[in-house]
Amino acid sequence: MSGSSLDGLDLAHCRIDQATGKTDWTILHAQTFPYTESWRNKLQTANSLTSLDFMQLDAEFAILIGELTKQWMAENNIEADLIASHGHTVFHEPGHHFTTQIGSGAHIAAITKVDTIVDFRQADIANGGQGAPFAPVADRDLFSGYDGYLNLGGIANISILNQDKTWKAWDIAPCNQALNFLAAKKGFAYDADGKLAASGNIIPEIVEKLKKYFPPTLGKAFSLSNTTVQNTWIQYLDQAPFDILDLLFITTQAIAQLIIDHISAIHQDTAKILITGGGAHNSYLFQQINSVGTKHSFVFEKPADLIIDFKESLLMAYLGYLSFHGKPFGIHTVTGAAHDSIGGAYHKAFK
Predict the structure, then answer these.
(1) DSSP summary character for residue 36
(2) How far is CA 144 from the centre of its chain?
(3) E strands, 140-276, where?
(4) Which residues of the chain does CATH 3.30.420.40 include?
(5) Would you place residue 6 in the very low, low, confident or very high pLDDT band (cuts 50, 70, 90)?
(6) Are strands 88-93 and 98-102 parallel, antiparallel or unpaired?
(7) Strand 116-118, strand 148-152: pairing
């Protein structure tokens, strides 16, 4: 898994079994390989490449994934039945009927000698959906007992049971992408525990300005592209004539308030919500979300660090499992597609 926050490549060795009629799972081993500055720049600017350079990057990134995975498997005595790779999203434009994640599955399979499934989102888009989110199928099957599931990644997104007990899921607003962008201006890769943000000052009108970019969707399927993040919050924050610490405080408040605004627009009852994703480690952000959520009787909980950090990798493993067994994972009532879909492009390895 490679997320929009560009922290690095997440690898997780997962065992999944549905022989008993329910889904049993374990994360056996997991590790993040941070991107070098060179790779971070390559991925960040991939959307501006020529078609020739873009296709070259697709192959080069797959070679990186393949070599890191092969090395990691050897060092940890891992034997895998299947690799499920999300790749890295460069373009996500469901309104124009396409999405693009780089990281050629053929190259990964050739290097690792393990059958590889990639391109999980395209089938849903071809059937009229947003190609996202797919987390609800894993949330429903792997993490029962919650009313909602909030992921604080580069973008904040939510899966939640609606008042009529149907699943709704959508992207809410930028999260770590915006916070990391501001932290970098102070010389940090990210704002550890939200300590920088906590030292800033509030400017209410700027919080409201940020919130206006992403009003509640009322549960409608919506996926937010990295390009949109860049053209809205990042562009505004880059030009805003305020102290960086104040902007971090303001952005944190905007994220927390938007999360509660979006949830409360369709869910008025008490709700217990699981928080995962890198932003769950941001103690100040977590505190602010809980503080605002208390007014609506929303309670947010964090799981063990392994789940926080590698839930998206577990999701990809589960999508690979479902795809391999011919089971749908694109829930059409969530993505807006005409019907449920079975995505994924399968690449056989020569062993």
Answers:
(1) P
(2) 20
(3) 148-152, 155-161, 167-174, 271-276
(4) 8-130+341-347, 144-302
(5) confident
(6) antiparallel
(7) unpaired
User: For 247, how many CA atoms within 13 A lie in the half-sphere containing its CB?
Assistant: 21
CA torsion angle 19 21 23 29 (round to 10): -20
* Per-residue tokens: 205: 């009108």
Average pLDDT over residues 157-171: 81
What backbone torsions phi and psi does residue 274 show, to the nearest 5 degrees?
Answer: -90, 130
CA distance 83 to 256: 35
Q: For 40-89, what is each residue's pLDDT tens digit?
A: 999 999 999 999 999 999 999 999 999 999 999 999 999 999 999 999 99
Q: Which two tokens stand for residue 19?
A: 């022989």
Q: Count the neighbouring beta carbons within 10 Å of the beta carbon of residue 101.
A: 21
pLDDT at 283: 95
**According to the CATH classification, is domain 144-302 in 3.40.50.720?**
no
Q: Strands, E, within the chain: which ranges?
A: 8-17, 24-34, 83-84, 88-93, 98-102, 116-118, 148-152, 155-161, 167-174, 271-276, 298-301, 345-347
- Is residue 267 within 8 A of residue 159, CB to CB? The reply is no
Closest CA to 323 of 349, 350, 348, 341: 341
Kindly tell me the burial class for residue 230, based on how many C-beta atoms sit within 10 Å of its own C-beta (0-12, 13-18, 19 or more).
middle
**Is domain 8-130+341-347 given the CATH code 2.40.50.140 in the classification?**
no
Token pair listed for 26: 């374990």
| Exposure of 53 in the CB half-sphere (CA atoms within 13 A) | 8
CA 335-65-229 angle, 5° bins:
45
Interatomic CA distance for residues 208 and 188, integer angstroms: 26
The contacts of residue 181 (CB under 8 Å, 6+ apart) are: 234, 237, 238
Question: What are the start-end ranges of the E strands in 122-204?
Answer: 148-152, 155-161, 167-174
**Which residues sit opposite 272 in a β-bridge?**
299
